[in-house]
Specification:
This protein is an alpha+beta fold. 46% of the residues lie in helices and 20% in strands. It has eight helices and eight strands, in the order ααββββββαββααααα.
């Protein structure tokens, strides 16, 4: 498990000693496919960073319909910021779509690590800024796009996702039914 973390940390301006120290102190866990990391209605106590694997953010609406909002893959943060920071019940769940290796953080350890390793603040901030920019771009494209355009955009921006997640979840992410996704793929000869 620490091999994934060590390789990841080497991509930053850290000394070899810092990489070794961080690798021994950062909480890295493996989870099996299907593991629920956060249940809708629970207060989020942890945040996750994907070193390997795929996570899904989803909610079940009042009609019992499951709606997928996002997938998180390598080098992405999976957190319900609102629940985690405000200590309120989460409006969605996060589950492992694949066996996953994750960095796991919580408020107490996060503050200790930031004080001990100030460079982590800069690294974390960079990922948060990138996440926010991606969310804004994705929302803008999603709102103005047709179902076919949404699928083509996904092929362009996240092509590896297509073969990693079940088609019904992919259709939900794109705001369509599985049958509609099949029609779009047929029209595009994919």
């Amino acid at each position: 498990m620490t091999d994934y973390l060590t390789e990841f940390l080497k991509g930053f301006t850290l000394t070899q000693a810092e990489v070794e120290q961080l690798s021994s102190e950062i909480d890295v866990r493996t989870y099996k496919q299907g593991t629920i990391l956060l249940r809708q209605g629970d207060v989020s106590k942890e945040c996750y960073f994907v070193l390997q694997g795929c996570l899904r953010q989803f909610a079940i609406d009042e009609a019992g319909e499951e709606n997928t909002y996002n997938f998180y893959t390598e080098k992405q943060t999976a957190i319900n910021y609102k629940s985690y920071t405000q200590r309120i019940p989460s409006e969605y769940s996060i589950e492992c779509v694949e066996d996953s290796v994750l960095i796991v953080g919580d408020f107490i350890n996060e503050d200790v690590m930031f004080q001990k390793y100030p460079k982590l603040i800069e690294i974390t901030r960079g990922f948060m800024e990138e996440d926010l920019a991606n969310i804004q771009d994705n929302n803008a494209r999603f709102i103005s796009a047709s179902p076919q355009e949404r699928y083509l955009n996904l092929l362009d921006t996240r092509p590896n996702l297509i073969d990693r997640v079940p088609q019904h979840q992919l259709a939900s992410l794109l705001g369509m039914k599985p049958e509609s996704l099949s029609r779009v793929k047929r029209r595009l000869n994919l």
